[in-house]
């Protein structure tokens, strides 16, 4: 199990600081090209680091209780990395501290009561795939990352396209489905889910809503995460972004 840590970044991580042009969108599937123009990526530099805060609710099983969630998350775009730290409080359990992330080419998940007693730990190829897929799907909050060199595209139809990310021997793909206004309505993929001590590969979807202009980009602030199981939908996350910052030093935050 990899030990949790902060993502460290330096100026050397910034690969391309030049503003995005219309030429950078050439060759993309038409709905992706239209979406990136709508959300406002043209004329701004590629985002390299992201910090956000979330609140919402979370549960660990289809029939389990919902818990109140507060979380902080940091990303780097180059190299692909994120760390999500959450506290989940339910009426029946002590607060659970969760660390979910992808760094050094691997995914990890740790959950502890009061941050001390371990209640869940996961790592391995399935976790690598799932966490890299999560990283890719969350480009909705920093959409210049869709233009990263490790992302390739496949055309689907006039309202959807598939993005594939490959990094450190792991590959993950997600389908972007757009609404009538050209914005992302939801994303869908096949993702591994931990069931007991084994993994199940299930259909996974993340509807997004609540679009607002943040730092001159049009992004969704509300989202859900749902596994579409044969026994019915398992919605396990329902949250909202309350703070979103790009390319700001960590030391500048309270």
Strand order in the sheet with the most strands: 6-5-4-3-2-1-13-12-11-10-9-8-7
Structural class of the helix and strand makeup? mainly beta
How many strand segments? 13
Global Rg: 18 Å
- Number of alpha- plus pi-helical segments: 2
Under CATH, the topology is which?
outer membrane lipoprotein receptor (LolB), chain A
- Main beta sheet strand tally, sense and closure: 13 strands, antiparallel
H/E series, N to C?
Answer: HEEEEEEHEEEEEEE
Low-confidence runs (pLDDT<50, min 5 residues)? Answer: 1-14
Distance, first to last CA: 30 Å
CATH domain class: Mainly Beta
Number of domains: 1
Helix percent band: under 10%
What is the typical, i.e. mean, pLDDT?
Answer: 90
| Percent of residues in beta strands | over 45%
Q: So what's the overall shape?
A: globular
Q: What CATH architecture do you see? A: Clam
Structure, described:
- The protein is mainly beta and 254 residues long.
- It has a single domain (29-60, 68-252), classed as outer membrane lipoprotein receptor (LolB), chain A, CATH 2.50.20.
- It is built from 2 helices and 13 strands; from the N terminus they run αββββββαβββββββ.
- It has a 13-stranded antiparallel β-sheet.
- It is globular.
- Mean pLDDT is 90; it is low at 1-14.
Question: Topology, pairings included?
Answer:
Layout: H1 30-39, E1 49-58, E2 67-76, E3 81-89, E4 96-103, E5 106-113, E6 117-122, H2 125-137, E7 151-157, E8 160-167, E9 170-178, E10 184-195, E11 198-214, E12 217-229, E13 232-246
Antiparallel strand pairs: 1-2, 1-13, 2-3, 3-4, 4-5, 5-6, 7-8, 8-9, 9-10, 10-11, 11-12, 12-13
């Amino acid at each position: 199990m990899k030990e949790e840590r902060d993502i460290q970044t330096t100026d050397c991580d910034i690969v391309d600081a030049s503003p995005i042009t219309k030429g950078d969108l050439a060759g993309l599937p038409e709905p992706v090209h239209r979406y990136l123009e709508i959300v406002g990526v043209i004329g701004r530099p590629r985002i390299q680091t992201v910090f956000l805060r979330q609140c919402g609710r979370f549960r660990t099983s289809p029939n389990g209780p919902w818990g109140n969630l507060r979380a902080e998350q940091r990303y780097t775009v180059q190299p692909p990395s994120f760390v999500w730290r959450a506290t989940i409080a339910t009426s029946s359990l002590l607060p659970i501290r969760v660390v979910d992330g992808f760094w050094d080419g691997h995914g990890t998940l740790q959950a502890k009561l009061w941050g001390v007693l371990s209640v869940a730990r996961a790592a391995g190829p399935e976790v690598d795939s799932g966490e890299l897929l999560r990283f890719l799907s969350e480009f909705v909050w920093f959409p210049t990352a869709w233009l990263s060199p490790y992302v390739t595209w496949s055309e689907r139809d006039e309202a959807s396209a598939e993005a594939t990310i490959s990094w450190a021997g792991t590959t993950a793909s997600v389908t972007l489905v757009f609404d009538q206004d050209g914005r992302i309505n939801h994303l869908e993929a096949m993702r591994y889910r931990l069931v007991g001590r084994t993994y199940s590969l299930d259909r996974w979807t993340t509807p997004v809503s609540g679009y607002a202009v943040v730092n001159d980009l049009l992004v969704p602030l509300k989202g859900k995460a749902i596994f579409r199981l044969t026994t019915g939908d398992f919605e396990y996350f329902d949250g909202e972004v309350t703070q979103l910052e790009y390319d700001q030093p960590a030391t500048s935050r309270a």
